[in-house]
Amino acid sequence: MRRPPQPTPRGVSCTIRYADPVSVASEQMFGRKGPLMRVLGIDPGLTRCGLGVVDGSVGRPLTMIDVSVVRTSADLPVAQRLVTIEKGIDAWLDEYAPDAVAVERVFARSDSSTIMGTAQASGIALVAAARRGIPVALHTPSEVKAAVSGSGRAAKGQVGAMVARILRLDGPPKPADAADALALAITHVWRGGAQARIDAALAAQRGATGATGATAGRSRT
Q1: Cα distance between residue 43 and residue 177, in whole Å
Q2: What is the pLDDT along the chain (221 residues), one digit of tens a residue?
Q3: Is 206 exposed, middle or buried (0-12, 13-18, 19+ CB in 10 A)?
Q4: Which residues are tagged catalytic?
Q5: Structural domains for the chain
Q6: Is the entire prediction scored with pTM above 0.85?
């Protein structure tokens, strides 16, 4: 497992890094720069469950913290395989303490034999995060592809190449489950950060409206 260089301290700015074209593109697509956040992306699967941790925010370079795959043997009972996946996810949640968890949304596809295992692993991920009070978001594969590559129909190779470019890696993470987990984390940093600012602005607007109404009521009395 490749360990990347330590990320730049949060209090330090670097003009060259912040001029990265991918960061500029994310700012144009999802809004202005936001606060740094850490996201654990989970690509659920019964045989291979991808895990990837990314630090960053909209309009700033993203940094891969770690990436791996939890593997289970098809020779083992399903219940035991799910326990292995749960232990792996629990360990990463405790070690990296993410601000949010992004999980691939399960959908019906041509290879129906894998849907059940994917759904089971997805449920384990949701429960593990909810048990710790960590916000969870579900993103469809087409949403992730569109966010990372600009096309909802991008091939896995294109997604892996863009993940490597966005995170400034030497090459696409392998296996594909690892790249997909990082792509999920990237998507949520960009989309989740933008949505959080929208929600905050709406909350502030509601608060201001309520305060104005209360003032007007007092003036009439």
Answers
A1: 6
A2: 444 444 433 333 222 223 344 443 444 444 445 689 999 999 999 999 999 999 999 889 999 999 999 999 999 999 999 999 999 999 999 999 999 999 999 876 656 667 889 999 999 999 999 999 999 999 999 999 999 999 999 999 999 999 999 999 999 999 999 999 999 999 999 987 655 555 555 667 777 766 555 555 565 65
A3: exposed
A4: 43, 104, 177
A5: 15-220 (3.30.420.10)
A6: no
